[in-house]
Amino acid sequence: MCIFCQIVKKEIPASIFYEDEIALAFLDIKPVNPGHALVIPKGHVANLEEISDSDLALLIGAVKKVGRMLKDKLGISGYNLVLNNDPIAGQEIFHLHFHLIPRFENDGLKLFPAGEYKMGEKEELLNKLLS
Ligand code: AMP
Ligand code: ZN
User: Is 3 a pocket residue for ligand 1 (Cβ < 6 Å)?
Assistant: First the structure.
């Protein structure tokens, strides 16, 4: 059984602060910033492609509630919502989870450095996407 399923079953400890029918939220043990939270579905699915649309709708509702909790209870003014989907994207635990990463003035985090396309590259990608 995966580590997050063990947390769902309360077989290993976690700093759980939100739970509903489908979702669970707890503090990440290695926070990017204080208050870094993870929201997971209680049922095991590895990634975004594996969760049903109906469960995903409930899960994103839980994400929204947890974000509200971070704002109301911890006083944070905003957060990044991150999903590392698959190993190439840095996923290390193969039980779907959304990261809510609180942001603070001058915290130095740079999540999305801007790149640029080579000549014709964007058009080629767009054509593939539209085909
Ligand atoms: P990812 O790279 O998206 O798979 O992220 C996995 C996250 O889970 C990392 O940020 C870890 O710090 C976190 N994590 C791993 N084990 C635990 C645990 N037992 N309790 C809380 N967070 C955990
Ligand atoms: Zn699991």
Answer: yes
